[in-house]
Every structure is written in structure tokens, then in C-alpha cells.
Write a structure and sequence with these properties.
The structure is a homodimer. Helices cover 77% and strands 0% of the residues of chain A. By secondary structure, chain A is an all-alpha fold. Chain A folds into two domains: 48 residues, Arc Repressor Mutant, subunit A (Orthogonal Bundle), CATH 1.10.10; 143 residues, Tetracycline Repressor, domain 2 (Orthogonal Bundle), CATH 1.10.357. Chain A is globular and about 65 Å long. The first copy, chain A, starts with 8 loop residues before the first helix and ends in a 6-residue tail after the last helix. Chain A binds a DNA duplex through helix 1 and helix 3.
DNA sequence: AATGCATTTAATCGAATGATTAAAATAGTT
DNA sequence: AACTATTTTAATCATTCGATTAAATGCATT
């Protein structure tokens, strides 16, 4: 981001155009498969402007990834830290917020998971992932409800795997699932909207303390 | 695979060495990120031998992918088509077979899902994914049990999303989950082994016809 | 040993790609 | 209008990477 001689709308526009194009192409193809020329073409700008505004492909990628990660965890954080809602309500709010976000941006999970597998240290270094979960209002409630025997005994990480698996996995496997079920994009999304209602019910059943021996 | 002047152990060894190395590198880095030189180095062979035996990087990749897909669905097929076992038993057998396979080869899910997202047509063209599920012994039983009201009403595809989400997703998200839970590889695997027992229980609870209004 | 085919090697090619450069165009300030 | 800093463009560079080639080596049959 070069120093500006004066605030200028065109500068902001070009920079923003590049970011929008970069986000789209990176999300679709991942870091290694995207060419800076793809981004320049999509943005309708000269190739050199990418390096002029962002120095390198990698620096541009880092910015996009940081923003994408924020999208991915922001809705989660607000749900987890609402002191005023019950555990059951949090599950409902999370499922709804997440699935609606994933319907809008279905490439995000595979994008993040893929990059995370190939460069775990780089991506996870900044993220204080542990505190995110274990120091939340949700975590306190979870422990309390367990002590009151209102929910079954289950490590919080297993619970997290379950709710993420049920909500996020279909978007990771969407090409396979669409093929198996012969689904269009809209039909797939309809199934996902159905899951907004069902997943909290299923989670309740799983967490029912009386159902387990 | 050039015609052989005579059956020769060294030939087979070189070809096999390349395939083993290719499988390892492709699984770890995906198609675009792996260089043929990586494979040659890992196999301890001259770079040109890769093209000599397999013509191109892509042809080699296609072979590896076909084998990997087979690994991924083979254990599934045998479970789904065993006429002699109950639905409940099939869930148990599937979970056990799949999680044990994924502990051995944890990169397979992200490898397949990632390539599938980037080239869905190429990968899914051959796979008769629909018949795989809907024409199985499992499918017949599923419909029967539903008609007898022994299981809750749930589209088979939702059921598939649930069981795959619960079993496979943790391996897709493993870098994130390890970071959140501060887990070593062995600790992560221990959690997965625990899930072999738990997932069938959870599925039973979800499918209980009396639990739903 | 001589022959013939298969395998292996070192060297190199051509295309693709991220990045840079120098010149041209643009826009704000005086 | 003249000046100055910024932005944009076209051309080019250096490197990487998949693939090929021609020569060398290995090996079985005769």
C-alpha cells in the first residue's frame, strides 16, 4: 500500500478491486494454483499493479487469508460469548449463523482446511484457538450443565467435532454429495437449510444425559 | 509402462518406487503443489524415469488418485453390501473400518476433497456414486426399517452427511483441532479411537423413532 | 563375446510464472 | 500552465518446472 500523494478514490478502488478479485480466485483455486495473472485478469488491471499495491502474491494472500479466517471465526465468537443465552440457544444460533454464512460462501471451508493442512504453522501461529473455545462463556456453561447433570459427559473437543462435523462437513464434501444425490446447487442449499433446524435437535439427543448408560 | 524385454524385478521395483513416492507426495501436497522433482527425489530415481514409466505427471497422478479413491470407497462398499448384518451393525462396522483406515492414512480425506473441489468433473465422471449408495443392501434395509418405524424419518442423504461428518470431518480439520485441544498426533488418534465406540451410539440416538415428535 | 532391447543418466528445451523496470499517463498543488 | 508525486502500462527478466533427447549402461539371449 504505497503512500498517497493525497487521498484519492481511484487508488482505493484499484486496491479494493485487486482484493476482491484475489479473494475470489484464491478461494476457488487455493494459493498454489492461482496465478497472479488470473487475479489481474479478474480485477481488470495491469499485472504490475498487484505487486505495486501488495508487494507480492504471498503478501496479498496473507491479507485475504486473515480476512477469511476472521469471517470464519467472527460469527462463532459472538455466539460463544453471549452470556445471556442458554446452551441450547447457542447451538441453534451457531448452526443458523454458520450454515447461512456457508451457503453464501461455500468455498471457505475447503479453502481454509486445505491451506491449513499444507501450512499449519503459518496459519495457526496467530490464532489463539485454545482461548477461543475454552475461555468462552460457552465453556463455563458447558461445565456447569455437565456438573448439574443436564448434559451427558463428553469432552468439549468431542462436542466441537460433532457440531462442526455436522454443520461444516457437507460443504467440504459438496461435490461428492451433489453427485451421489444428483443435486443442483439450489437443492443442496435446501438440504442445508433443513439442517439448520435438525442439527440442534440431533445435538440435544446426543447430549441427553438420560439416554446414556 | 513400457513393454518389458523380459519380466525383471528391477523394472517393477523402479515403477513401484515411483508410485510409492508419488502417493506420498501427492497426498501430502496435492497435485499442483507437487513437483515431479519432489517425487524423483523421494523415490531416489532420475527425474526422466518418471516420464519414462508414466508419460506425464498427470497420468501418474490419475493412477494414484484412482487407487486412493478405491481405498476410500472399498471399505465402504463391503460394509454397505453385506446382506447378513443389521443396520446398527453396519454403522458400527463402517465407523470402525473408516476411522482405522483414516488413522493409518489421515491425509486422504483432505486430499480427495481438495482435488474434488478443484476438478469435480474429472474425478466424479467415473465414480458411479449414486448406485454405490442407493442400490446397496444398506439402502434396502434403510427403507424397510423406516417403513417398520424402527428408525426416524430422515432422507438417506442427510443420514450420509451425518455419519460422514462425524467420522471424516475430524481428519479434515485435524490441524485446527490439534491446535485448539493442544493435542499430539497420538492424543488425537486416541480421541478418534474413542469415537469408534461413540459414533454408533450417537447415530442410534439420532435415529430413534420415538425421540422425534 | 556379440547382439538387441530395456533402462538409466546428464543435459537441455520451452513454456509458464512471479516480479521488476523504465517510460508514459494521470491528477493534485501552486 | 508548470511542477511534482502517484498511478498505470508494456516490455522484459530470472527462475522454476514438466518434458524430451541422446548417449551410456545393464542385461538376457544367442
Amino acid at each position: 500500500m504505497p503512500k498517497r500523494y493525497s487521498p484519492d478514490k481511484k487508488d482505493i478502488n484499484t486496491e479494493e478491486k485487486i482484493k476482491i478479485a484475489a479473494r475470489s480466485v484464491f478461494h476457488k483455486k487455493g494459493f498454489v494454483a492461482t496465478r497472479t495473472r488470473d487475479i489481474a485478469l479478474e480485477a481488470g488491471i495491469n499485472l504490475a499493479l498487484l505487486n505495486y499495491y501488495f508487494r507480492s502474491k504471498e503478501k496479498l494472500f496473507d491479507i485475504i487469508m486473515a480476512e477469511t479466517l476472521h469471517t470464519f471465526v467472527a460469527s462463532l465468537i459472538s455466539v460463544l460469548n453471549d452470556e445471556s443465552t442458554s446452551l441450547q440457544h447457542k447451538v441453534e444460533a451457531f448452526t443458523k449463523a454458520y450454515i447461512e454464512m456457508l451457503i453464501r460462501e461455500p468455498e471457505i471451508p475447503i479453502f481454509i482446511m486445505s491451506e491449513m493442512h499444507h501450512h499449519p504453522d503459518k496459519l495457526l501461529a496467530r490464532l489463539n484457538a485454545k482461548a477461543l473455545l475454552f475461555e468462552s462463556a460457552f465453556a463455563k456453561q458447558y461445565v456447569q450443565e455437565f456438573e448439574k447433570k443436564n448434559i451427558a459427559a463428553m469432552p468439549m473437543l468431542q462436542f466441537l467435532m460433532n457440531i462442526l462435523g455436522l454443520t461444516v462437513f457437507p460443504f467440504v464434501a459438496s461435490p461428492l454429495l451433489k453427485k451421489i444425490g444428483n443435486l443442483s446447487g439450489n437443492e443442496f442449499n435446501a438440504l442445508m437449510k433443513e439442517r439448520i433446524k435438525r442439527i440442534p435437535e440431533w445435538i440435544s439427543l446426543i447430549m441427553n444425559p438420560d439416554a446414556h448408560p
